Amino acid sequence: MRGLLPLMLTAVVLSTACGDDDKSPTGNGQVSGLVAIASANSAASVPVGASTTLPVIITRSGSFLGPVTMSVTGLPAGVTASFTQAGGVIPEGTRLSTLTLTASATAVPTTTAAPIQLVATGQGTNPVLQNIALTVTPSTTGSMAITAAPAAHIITAGQTATSTITVTRIGGFAGSVTIGAVANAPAGLTATVATSPITGNTAVITIATTTATVPGNYALTFSATGTGATTRSVPITVIVQPVAAP
């Protein structure tokens, strides 16, 4: 299907102890469930002194329905990670989060991509891992960074969603920025920018579907360009669900 990019998933069967209350079909005092995590991109880059964002999606199945705690390991020196939810805890009933990676002004640029891991854990479960190759780039003259919030949406075909793109100008760049058209969009999905180019720091993107949009997971990419500045891109993942039967 054109425009449909499957997300990279890592999944593992989880076991949660439940004492004497044996609800397992195997009768061994264990409840089995499945959890998967995904980032729309297996690679990311962040300039020194700026941030980048990645969408995160949690899928629970089986008997595991509880909160999931997200964390990131292997970060280069000077780089920190945060999530939409406080403490990185995605509550029960919630599937989406945005991972923000921030490189401080003293972060050292990497010569090769650093292998970091997105980690998800639930109470009494084994961790689930997603690998991401992170590059820290120098803060050169005429540069910028862009982030998206939220970086993931779940909508029903025919609905719309909005995200805010934030532009951080660095390295002396002070010009206007054009938010580029969406890439990897399927038929029936459009994205419009309220104002472009922008002289400020934010732009609102409206993502619209029709009832004919084919359900699926779509990894969209938006670009930001400015005269004399390094072009940047940011991913936004949209999960389109089918219209409920009448």
What would you note in describing this structure?
It is a single chain. This protein is mainly β and 246 residues long. 0% of the residues lie in helices and 54% in strands. The protein has no helices and 18 strands. The strands form 4 sheets. Strands 1-2-4-8-6 form a 5-stranded antiparallel beta sheet, with no helix packed on it. The chain is flat, with a radius of gyration of 20 Å. The two termini are 26 Å apart.
Short description:
The chain has strands at 8-17, 30-39, 43-47, 51-62, 68-73, 79-83, 89-90, 96-103, 114-121, 128-137, 143-149, 152-156, 160-170, 178-179, 189-193, 202-209, 216-225, 232-241. It is mainly beta. The protein has a five-stranded antiparallel sheet with strand order 1-2-4-8-6, with no helix packed on it. The chain has a five-stranded mixed sheet with strand order 3-10-9-5-7, with no helix packed on it. The protein has a four-stranded antiparallel sheet with strand order 11-13-16-15, with no helix packed on it.
